[in-house]
From TrEMBL:
This is ABC transporter permease. Residues 80-275 form the ABC transmembrane type-1 domain. CDD domains: TM_PBP2. The keyword Transport applies. It comes from Streptacidiphilus pinicola. The chain crosses the membrane at residues 21-49, 79-104, 116-137, 157-180, 201-222, 254-274. Its main location: membrane.
Length: 284
């Protein structure tokens, strides 16, 4: 008795788990290639076009003038370095805050308190991005908490770093919490038996073990900060980041906006390649 093609296909998928997995992932992978990688390809291609100075129309003429302008114009270099500095600053601040927070949550807090702390850490993710950014604008503006405490409001690069650090802190805490929770007690006991003090144990034993999780969290904070442009508009004052330059150029000079967009993409790709051997990707 001949089986239908559908039955034969179902039998083949059942006998070969690898084929079944490929069939399940084929549709989302095709969407990823077309929607994400395809858009990146179009972005890179349009960066080599130009805009007519009189009509503001895009001219599909192959040239590298946009990249030459980015490298030669000090304004673009300043904005790029400022954006990189803000992203690094946010990553450092979040790492410094998340390490003790995650360690306490995973190794010190009682189970009931641990659950409450996890809810407290993830609760800001339930609120809207703009709500949180404008809440910091209220605290940093005239009559806010900072004005009340030190007598002056604070906008600019420090305000951007503070606000972005708050926004992305959960993305640093959660990987570190998972890493600390998986630390075997025998490792910590062995370090104590060998006479290591708590700080020495943390620096020489614990920190190397959670380093992949720390780098995984830094991938989130670094990349999200590089691409942000709303926070700097709200609390940055006159400060500009690459995202603001891209947003302002999209309607006026699309090829230049595409060329500027390549800068954060290259920075993120370079960072991912630099940390690929640390095991951070497995903690994402």
């Amino acid at each position: 008795m001949h089986r239908s093609p559908v039955r034969r296909l179902a039998g083949a998928l059942h006998r070969r788990p690898g084929l079944r997995l490929t069939a399940l992932l084929s549709a989302p992978m095709a969407w990823l290639v077309l929607a994400y990688l395809g858009s990146l390809g179009v972005l890179l291609l349009s960066a080599f076009w130009t805009t007519n100075d009189f009509t503001s129309q895009v001219e599909y003429v192959w040239n590298t003038d946009n990249f030459a302008n980015i490298l030669s114009d000090p304004v673009y270099r300043t904005v790029a370095l400022r954006t990189l500095g803000i992203a690094v600053g946010v990553t450092v601040v979040d790492g410094a805050l998340a390490l003790p927070m995650a360690f306490y949550m995973a190794r010190v807090a009682r189970p009931r308190s641990r659950r409450l702390l996890l809810v407290a850490v993830t609760a800001p993710l339930w609120a809207g991005y703009l709500v949180k950014a404008y809440a910091w604008w209220v605290m940093l503006s005239h009559g806010g908490v900072l004005d009340w405490a030190v007598g002056t409001p604070g906008f600019g690069v420090p305000a951007v770093v503070i606000t972005l650090s708050y926004l992305w802190l959960p993305y640093m805490v959660l990987p570190l919490y998972a890493a600390f929770a998986q630390l075997p007690d025998s490792v910590l006991d062995a370090s104590a038996d060998l006479g290591a003090r708590p700080w020495r144990t943390f620096r020489s034993v614990v920190l190397p073990l959670v380093k992949p999780a720390l780098i995984a969290g830094s991938i989130f904070t670094f990349s999200l900060s590089l691409g942000d442009y709303l926070t700097v508009q709200i609390v940055g004052g006159t400060t500009q980041m690459l995202g603001n330059v891209i947003a302002s150029d999209v309607t006026l000079n699309l090829p230049m906006a595409a060329a500027v967009s390549c800068v954060p993409v290259l920075l993120i790709v370079g960072y991912l390649l630099a940390v690929r051997r640390t095991g951070a990707w497995e903690n994402l």
